[in-house]
Design brief:
Immunoglobulin-like, about 160 residues, four-stranded antiparallel beta sheet, mainly beta, flat, five-stranded antiparallel beta sheet, disordered N terminus
Length: about 160
């Protein structure tokens, strides 16, 4: 088993905001497990993850909160995808956000279907989820004082 510490990633928060606005960010890793409830129904729930094995899905939830007294404008939550993980295409979720990815370590962001990879022979091919190096959510509206939200995505441990 690999320790999940090797795949818990640094989360970046880029915020352009007025004085007195302060945004806190928390990153947590989970795995999805199936349990049986008291009525015998199988349900899926998230469980905190401390270890992961190759091929296992790792679910990240990034929670942000404006602890300041003013709205925070232009809030961007960005997250690198460690080399040990592969982003699961289409798994990113974030209400009231615009989601983009990078395939060049954060130099350029766009929707995955708009990105290409340059092959060694000089030709290009469409980028795929396995090429993703960074994720970015941009809030489409100011984050009011006291407001909070979260974004989530799934990865697979190589």
């Amino acid at each position: 088993m690999k320790l999940i510490k090797s795949v818990v990633v640094a989360v970046g928060l880029v915020v352009a905001m007025p004085a007195l606005a302060a945004v806190e960010l928390k990153s947590e890793a989970f795995r999805e497990v199936e349990v049986t409830d008291k009525d015998g129904n199988k349900i899926r729930k998230l469980e905190a993850l401390t270890r992961a094995t190759p091929g296992q899905e790792v679910i990240y939830i990034l929670t942000y909160r404006n602890t300041g007294k003013k709205a925070a404008n232009n809030v961007v939550v960005s997250n690198p995808v460690p080399k040990e993980l592969t982003y699961v295409a289409g798994s990113a979720v974030g209400a009231n956000t615009r989601f983009d990815v990078s395939v060049d370590d954060g130099k350029r962001y766009a929707p995955l279907e708009q990105l290409t990879i340059k092959n060694t022979d000089g030709t290009t091919r469409p980028a795929t989820a396995t090429d993703v190096t960074n994720l970015r959510w941009t809030l489409v509206a100011p984050l009011k004082a006291g407001a909070k939200g979260s974004v989530t995505y799934r990865t697979l441990l190589k």
